[in-house]
Design goal:
Elements lengths: L2 E5 L15 E3 L4 H6 L5 E5 L9 E7 L2 E4 H6 L11 E4 L2 E4 L10 H5 L3 E5 L1 E4 L5 E2 L20 H14 L3 E2 L20
Parallel strand pairs: 1-3, 9-11
Antiparallel strand pairs: 2-8, 3-4, 4-9, 4-10, 5-8, 6-7
């Protein structure tokens, strides 16, 4: 089990997408999506432009890993904001969306996979302070880091599970209300 940590410079509900009982990472962070495995954890921390440094926006345990076309056609994820790529014969098609455009397509698809979780903690704009003993997991700057001891990862997860309810606890910091979204912010 690994833990991947990165800084979130934006939190719109698109990547990660914490709605409808799942947290998904389908776009952005291609290196994480390509290399993470089921049972690994992904952690997004705040930045000066969002909720502030040293705060946890979300943590998700990868419970499924699939490719874009399977994700696109899976009825559980049909109307999600981040479900924007599918194959038409041999070509990838990008659905129109307010978040990523044609220029982002190669970057997104280079991750090859969509990470799915039904075991996650999402705080969004209500991000929580990360205790000092876990500051080592906080990534500063671009990219990600993932070389943490198993002991640190297990203690961090134990702290989360003992102190917070699993699931979506808050709304995204930079949430963009889309016409047709229900009160939870997910696509209809």
């Amino acid at each position: 089990m690994k833990l991947y940590s990165y800084v979130m410079v934006s939190d719109t509900g698109f990547a990660p997408n914490p709605f409808d009982g799942f947290c998904t990472l389908a776009c952005c962070k291609p290196n994480i999506r390509r290399t993470a495995s089921v049972d690994d954890w992904i952690v997004g921390t705040g930045s000066n432009g969002t909720v502030g440094n040293d705060k946890l926006i979300y943590a998700m345990k990868v419970t499924e890993k699939t490719d874009f076309d399977i994700y696109y056609h899976d009825k559980r994820f049909h109307n999600r904001l981040d479900n924007i790529y599918f194959k038409n014969k041999d070509n990838w098609i990008q659905k129109e969306n307010p978040f990523h455009h044609e220029k982002d397509m190669d970057h997104d698809l280079s991750g090859k996979y969509v990470l799915i979780s039904d075991d996650f903690f999402y705080f969004g704009k209500d991000a929580i302070e990360i205790p000092e003993k876990f500051w080592e997991i906080i990534k500063k700057g671009p990219g990600h880091k993932c070389n943490f001891s198993v002991i640190l990862v297990n203690e961090f997860i134990e702290w989360l599970e003992e102190n917070y309810a699993c699931g979506k606890q808050g709304e995204p910091y930079n949430y963009i209300e889309e016409p047709g979204n229900d009160e939870k912010g997910c696509g209809v």
